[in-house]
Structure to design on (982 residues):
């Protein structure tokens, strides 16, 4: 460099987007340069790409500033959430708006006529369980008649795995986000085999639901009253270091939960403790519903913040996949849902599978489940993957999230935090689809789980959600 | 004198193993006696009391709160607290192994790999370029926008945003720049010096910087602004902004502005700004009115060569460009091989501004000149679906060969542009086509003159001398500048026309 030469930029530090050959001369002249592995963003949709650019953070720009601030707040609330299990109560007594002949279901709202087999089966079962009809034919007629109401769990602070049916008499876990904070609810997990959430409604299913209502639920409620609120965030944090990912593998968290409850349980319900503990022993997935309620309480706290592109719900009703963003309020953005990629139990295959179903993707929305796959290499074996594939799933999810949650450390990644705060902008820009660990339901009601695997969220709903947010913020070209 | 201090992080769960590890690190800090990091459960609080770390602890700390407690010298305590917070943050942010890192695919990902980038080079298809430029500007980066086919309304918006943020938007359709001695796009290896240039024409900038180099002068900054910057709609936004920068730049003594003639209002604005500049400003508005420039107090230059000569002189370097021999002699010799009817010039250019300059030079010669065709092969109509002729010589080779079948063609006029990103041997690549054109002409009993200039420097990857020699060896008349090449081609054509005078 000649004497007296001055610098305009104080040294070039360039990002090269496009022709890779432009990078070499910069480096040769002493500049710093990074070549992007660029491809047309947003599925090569120019208009969407521009909307995306206009939604980027920018403190000097009215739209960019609102988005940046919205996301900062949303993230602060997600990371600052402290979900605790405070009780087990009948759904009708605690869930707002669950009154009369109303049933809640998983996923975005859907009418009876359009519901998939397992969801219809579960609804028939719930009607029978509530005693609103005497036999399946009458139950079906009632569902069809309009004499009863259906609504999405998510509209009531609730979440349910698979069909996700919640009826007023079912006991639900009550999770509070910190003392006096927002609440979330989930039913008790029934275990595997013939269960309501997969659409089964025979006598064994109904008998279990009655036992939940009359004994299991009340006993759990009394036990919790004795132990005091249980910190679910801490259980999840520990379980992530023990091979769980909080969605499809819950054996560690379930064990930790049982260990916490057992002494008080034996004390408050000596006559029922054995049956309760035996049921819990046989249900590795019992914590799933608590994990989901904890995630729901966490994300609801971050919901409804103007401008925020953070995803606060991903859910499936077996027909559609739906997402909600913090900044777009209660609108669902939906796309058709596909069949997960996975392994099947003997005798079943993809032709038997129902398209993906359930609210359990709330765990991925919160940064665990598929996003924490690095913690649970066992899961990737469902798709024939290796332990390093598990790490790569989590690494890939860092590309579409805003933060790493320091509360949820992943030992295989050097104790890096879980990928947290899905940013719809990053999803649409990169085309990286959120990964979801999931069970696979048979498409006919009552057969139950026939496999497990990994699904990807469809991109279209994220694109539509961003368009919706952009329109709300008055982004040019997004009307 | 040891004190006990605590800090409470509300609602901040950490695994106990991690907390113990951080505590042990804090205890190793000078001046620290003991440190404890715990979630404030009753059991853990009892441990803190036992360890003498609970003195004065806020009784409001609960099981979801993380307590950092130290017993340390007063000065060390504060530092220990900060270090603990830092360690907690760094653990959560720990990156996966570099060997497993996915290549950054977006600007958002790029900024996490290259810290504090200050420039984005964008050469994507034009359809996507505006969005990338917008993202780069929002992140505070200057933009070098090589892409073409960007709508003008996007350009207006991007430049307005750049002005608001104090950032340069070089382009769209910006071929070249040299910032802080770093070449961007198609640029030549020129020495650094005190002449600052701003150009709305890429090869114009290249020609002037190369000629400055040949004169022994150097370049402080060369800022491209894109071919439409001085259009009415854009209003010269970036030329004005760049002029402000060069005026403020202590490394720039002389400023050169290069453009096609701007829209009249824009010209006025530019000339006013140049008049206010406390530095001499040389202006080449190719084919524009020199009087307006002169009366505004700036220095008009009719050609790129003149701009370079003026700027070098104003920068204190009074040198001349090397002569290539008497143009008249070369012209006569070249014209001798031509036969009656061969009167026209076919200019086949890879540089749009060089083509423009050739037109201006030929247009300025007297009316006795025969017809001529000057084609810019870098124009959009020729580059759809194929690389620019500065990279890919095939289209120009085809056009050269076609001249062999044109009975009226007397002279082929070429520009050879060297530099980074250009073809590794642009002169050599055209030789086979030139030979074929000559052979076809000879077969028909005609001659063919070929005139070229090489825009480049000795330090360019292709080497100025080597490229000139390649051309000269093939019988091409090589001029020192594009303007001189055009002049020479004109002389040859004029002489050829004289051959046709009634016998």
């Amino acid at each position: 460099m000649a004497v007296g030469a001055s610098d305009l930029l104080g040294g070039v530090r360039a990002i090269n987007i496009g022709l890779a050959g432009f990078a070499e001369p910069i480096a040769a002249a002493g500049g710093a340069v990074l070549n992007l592995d660029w491809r047309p963003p947003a599925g090569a949709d120019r208009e969407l790409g521009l909307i995306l650019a206009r939604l980027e953070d920018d403190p000097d720009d009215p739209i960019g500033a609102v988005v940046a601030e919205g996301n900062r707040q949303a993230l602060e609330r997600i990371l600052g959430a402290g979900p605790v299990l405070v009780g087990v109560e009948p759904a009708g007594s605690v869930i707002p708006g669950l009154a009369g002949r109303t049933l809640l279901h998983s996923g975005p709202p859907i009418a009876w006529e359009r519901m998939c087999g397992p969801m219809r089966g579960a609804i028939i079962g719930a009607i029978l369980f509530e005693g609103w009809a005497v036999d399946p034919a009458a139950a079906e007629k009632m569902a069809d008649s309009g004499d009863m109401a259906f609504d999405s769990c998510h509209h009531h602070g609730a979440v349910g795995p698979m069909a996700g049916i919640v009826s007023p008499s079912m006991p639900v876990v009550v999770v509070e986000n910190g003392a006096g904070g927002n609440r979330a609810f989930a039913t008790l997990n029934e275990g595997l085999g013939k269960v309501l959430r997969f659409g089964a409604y025979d006598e064994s299913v109904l008998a279990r639901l009655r036992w939940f209502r009359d004994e299991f639920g009340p006993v759990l409620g009394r036990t919790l009253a004795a132990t005091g609120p249980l910190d679910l965030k801490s259980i999840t944090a520990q379980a992530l270091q023990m091979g769980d990912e909080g969605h499809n593998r819950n054996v560690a968290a379930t064990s930790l939960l049982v260990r916490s409850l057992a002494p008080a349980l034996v004390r408050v319900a000596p006559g029922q403790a054995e049956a309760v503990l035996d049921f819990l022993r046989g249900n590795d997935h019992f914590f799933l519903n608590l994990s989901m309620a904890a995630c729901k309480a966490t994300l609801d706290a971050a919901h409804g913040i103007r401008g925020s592109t953070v995803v606060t719900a991903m859910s499936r009703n077996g027909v559609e996949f739906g997402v909600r963003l913090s900044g777009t309020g209660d609108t669902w953005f939906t796309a058709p849902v596909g069949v997960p990629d996975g392994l099947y139990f003997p005798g079943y295959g993809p032709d038997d599978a129902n398209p993906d179903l359930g609210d359990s993707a709330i765990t991925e929305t919160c940064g665990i489940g598929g996003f924490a796959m690095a913690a649970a290499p066992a899961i990737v074996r469902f798709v024939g993957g290796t332990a390093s594939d598990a790490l790569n799933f989590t690494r890939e999810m860092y590309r579409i999230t805003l933060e790493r949650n320091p509360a949820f450390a992943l030992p295989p990644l050097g104790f890096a935090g879980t990928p947290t705060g899905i940013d719809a902008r990053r999803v649409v820009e990169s085309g990286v689809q959120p990964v979801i660990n999931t069970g696979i339901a048979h498409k006919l009601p009552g057969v139950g789980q026939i496999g497990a695997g990994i699904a990807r969220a469809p991109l279209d709903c994220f694109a539509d959600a961003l368009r919706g947010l952009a329109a709300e913020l008055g982004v040019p070209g997004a009307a | 004198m040891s004190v006990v201090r605590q800090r409470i992080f509300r609602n901040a769960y950490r695994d106990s193993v991690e907390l113990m590890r951080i505590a042990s690190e804090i205890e190793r800090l000078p001046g620290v006696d003991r440190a404890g990091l715990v979630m404030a459960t009753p059991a853990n609080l009892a441990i803190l009391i036992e360890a003498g770390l609970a003195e004065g602890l806020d009784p409001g700390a609960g099981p979801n709160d993380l307590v950092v407690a130290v017993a340390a010298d007063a000065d060390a305590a504060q530092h220990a607290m900060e270090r603990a917070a830092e360690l907690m943050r760094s653990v959560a942010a720990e990156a996966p192994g570099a060997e497993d890192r996915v290549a950054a695919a977006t600007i958002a990902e790029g900024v996490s790999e290259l810290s504090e980038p200050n420039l984005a080079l964008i050469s994507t298809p034009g359809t996507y370029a505006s969005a990338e430029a917008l993202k780069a500007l929002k992140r505070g980066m200057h933009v070098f926008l090589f892409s073409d086919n960007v709508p003008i309304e996007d350009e207006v918006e991007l430049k307005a945003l750049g002005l608001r943020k104090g950032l340069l938007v070089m382009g769209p359709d910006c071929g070249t720049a040299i910032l802080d001695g770093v070449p961007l796009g198609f640029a030549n290896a020129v020495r650094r010096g005190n002449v600052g240039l701003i150009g709305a024409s890429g090869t114009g900038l290249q020609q002037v910087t190369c000629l400055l180099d040949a004169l022994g002068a150097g370049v402080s900054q060369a800022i491209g602004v894109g071919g439409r910057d001085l259009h009415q709609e854009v209003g010269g936004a970036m030329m004005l902004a760049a002029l402000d920068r060069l005026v403020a730049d202590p490394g720039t003594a002389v400023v050169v502005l290069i453009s096609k003639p701007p829209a009249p209002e824009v010209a006025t604005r530019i000339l006013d700004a140049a008049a206010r500049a406390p530095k001499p400003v040389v202006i080449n508005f190719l084919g524009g009115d020199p009087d307006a420039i002169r009366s505004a107090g700036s220095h008009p230059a009719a050609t790129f060569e003149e701009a370079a000569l003026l700027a070098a002189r104003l920068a204190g370097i009074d040198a001349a460009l090397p002569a290539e021999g008497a143009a008249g002699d070369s012209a006569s010799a070249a014209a001798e091989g031509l036969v009656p009817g061969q009167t026209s010039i076919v200019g086949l250019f890879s540089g749009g501004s060089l083509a423009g300059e050739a037109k201006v030079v030929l247009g300025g010669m007297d009316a006795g000149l025969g017809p001529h065709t000057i084609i810019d092969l870098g124009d959009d109509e020729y580059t759809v679906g194929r690389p620019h002729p500065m990279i890919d010589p095939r289209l120009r080779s085809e056009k050269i060969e076609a001249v062999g079948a044109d009975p009226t063609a007397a002279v082929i006029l070429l520009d050879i542009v060297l530099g980074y990103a250009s073809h590794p041997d642009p002169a050599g690549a055209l030789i086979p086509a030139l030979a074929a054109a000559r052979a076809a002409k000879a077969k028909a009993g005609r001659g063919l003159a070929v005139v070229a200039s090489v825009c480049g420097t000795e330090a360019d990857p292709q080497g100025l001398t080597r490229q000139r020699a390649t051309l000269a060896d093939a019988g091409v008349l090589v001029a020192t500048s594009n303007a001189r090449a055009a002049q020479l081609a004109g002389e040859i054509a004029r002489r050829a026309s004289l051959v046709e005078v009634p016998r």
Summary: The CA atoms of residues 312 and 325 of chain A lie 5 Å apart. Chain A touches chain B through 79 residues (CB under 8 Å). Residues 203-227 of chain A form the longest helix (25 residues).
